[in-house]
Amino acid sequence: VRYADGKGWYDARVEPRAPIPMDPAAAVLHYAQEIFEGLKAYKMADGGVAMFRPDANALRFVKSAERMAMPPLAPAAFLQSLREIIRIDQDWIPQSDEGSLYLRPYAFASEVFLGVRPALEYLYLVIASPVGAYFSGGIKPVSVWATPDYTRAAPGGTGAAKCGGNYAAGLSAQADAIEHGCDQVVYLDAVERKYVDELGGMNVFFVLDDGSLATPPLTGTILPGITRDSVIKLAERAGHQVVERPVSLDEWREGAASGRIREAFACGTAAVITPIGTIKSLDGEFTVADGGSGEVTMALRKQLVDIQRGRAADPFGWVHRVL
Ligand code: PMP
């Protein structure tokens, strides 16, 4: 779908995947005016096909557009584009319980000019790709590197938007995490460099010894994850109190040592919910409990996956059936 100032979104079409012509002066190539979403279509227990909370992705896409001074795409058009590509690519949806068709809607500034201002022309596209299980051979806790060198977002920055630039800025941090023998980076807040923000592509939760859950608040420096929101609702339904509050790396370390923090997990569309195993920082490394898969973590994971796959009732109306 194209956008031109004064004309709005127009020219929606489906084409076989192929390179798209880009002018060397297309604004996105210079100033990174680009946003995206990531979600999955998958087979349900009854053989149908569904997406999980795509309306939430549509709203986040609108908010990301606002932050990046881009024209919003109406949620109805966003949803229609996804339904259309799923219908066309339905034979590519893996049958397996763990596989899915990954959907990547994105929009970028295509106008040709070199000044620094919001563009007047954009392209919105969706690509789809089959993906297998995130964890092959069972769930494996992720290890994280609490980076002393990088932050993901500062107050007033673009942390709450799903824009490509955030991820470009995170590549060095992720490389650093891998160099320290960890799977993922865990970002600390930009102001005090103390409080846990999120991982490179997942939000974080802590399970405390009183059965409550704590998760960093949405203050604009972390991505408002749709899995995060779902976990909060499922945990509350299961009788856990969920508190959105800052949790420092010190509290994490001390809580792990004292038993006040029983479990830590990360969540996002790709892995759904995954335990956090080892936490490494300049002060050394530690694990929460034995660094394995905690009981509350795994119970929440099962509840969420069962709703997604149609094996459990859908009390919140999250499952969006397509076929
Ligand atoms: N934080 C970041 C930085 C992410 O890229 C993602 C993945 N979109 C998440 C959190 C989790 O968000 P969601 O649950 O919507 O996938």
TrEMBL record:
Entries under Pfam families matching the protein: Aminotran_4
Domain of life: Bacteria
Swiss-Prot/TrEMBL GO biological process terms: amino acid biosynthetic process; branched-chain amino acid biosynthetic process
Enzyme Commission number(s): 2.6.1.42
Catalyzed reactions per annotation: L-leucine + 2-oxoglutarate = 4-methyl-2-oxopentanoate + L-glutamate; L-valine + 2-oxoglutarate = 3-methyl-2-oxobutanoate + L-glutamate; L-isoleucine + 2-oxoglutarate = (S)-3-methyl-2-oxopentanoate + L-glutamate
Cited InterPro entries: Aminotrans_IV, Aminotrans_IV_CS, Aminotransferase-like, B_amino_transII, BCAT-like_C, BCAT-like_N, BCAT_family
Class of this enzyme: transferase
Positions in coiled-coil regions: none
Modified residues (N6-(pyridoxal phosphate)lysine): K162
Annotated GO MF terms: branched-chain-amino-acid transaminase activity
Cofactor(s) needed for function: pyridoxal 5'-phosphate
PROSITE patterns: AA_TRANSFER_CLASS_4 (PS00770)
Pathway listed: Amino-acid biosynthesis; L-isoleucine biosynthesis; L-isoleucine from 2-oxobutanoate: step 4/4; Amino-acid biosynthesis; L-leucine biosynthesis; L-leucine from 3-methyl-2-oxobutanoate: step 4/4; Amino-acid biosynthesis; L-valine biosynthesis; L-valine from pyruvate: step 4/4
Keywords, in A-Z order: Amino-acid biosynthesis, Aminotransferase, Branched-chain amino acid biosynthesis, Pyridoxal phosphate, Transferase
Similarity comment: family membership: Belongs to the class-IV pyridoxal-phosphate-dependent aminotransferase family.
Protein name in UniProt: Branched-chain-amino-acid aminotransferase
